Amino acid sequence: MSTPAMRRHAKSNHHGSSVLLRQCGSKRKKILRYLKEVSGKPLQQKDVENMIAEMRRETYISSDDNVRVSELLQNFGEGPGNAVRIFRDPATSLTSCITFQTAHMRRMARKFPDALCIDATHETNLNRYRLFSFMVTDKFGSGAFVQHALIDEETKFLLRSLLDLEMRAG
């Protein structure tokens, strides 16, 4: 008989090994196989998924999504050549737009400054943010993204600011 409590106890004995396996990029099936071999308990795939979700929650520094996003963007922006820009309304302190570029995206924008395409999604997520992806193409039609922007509201000022930023980056 396999109860969740028994399976939870088997996982807790080998939690450190599981964390290491996950950090090394092991797939869920391999982690499940390892835990079954080591513990001898009848574990299920759902147990491994729950354990990974729990490990992910343990890594959160803050329980507030806004704080976590800010920390994530700050860490991303500190990477070599990466850029993050946040448009925030000073009166309301609400964020209206977040743009981000990797170092590779910035190099591609400099390499092909004239061939700019813009792809926009419309209300494809729960928060109804719009994703604008700026892309350049070479003479063979191959494209590469050069900037992504999450936008709350499409205002003329904001879209013009995004295009100005993109032109200056290239």
From TrEMBL:
This is ZSWIM1/3 RNaseH-like domain-containing protein. InterPro entries: Zinc_finger_SWIM, ZSWIM1-3_RNaseH-like. Residues 78-163 form the ZSWIM1/3 RNaseH-like domain. It comes from the Eukaryota.
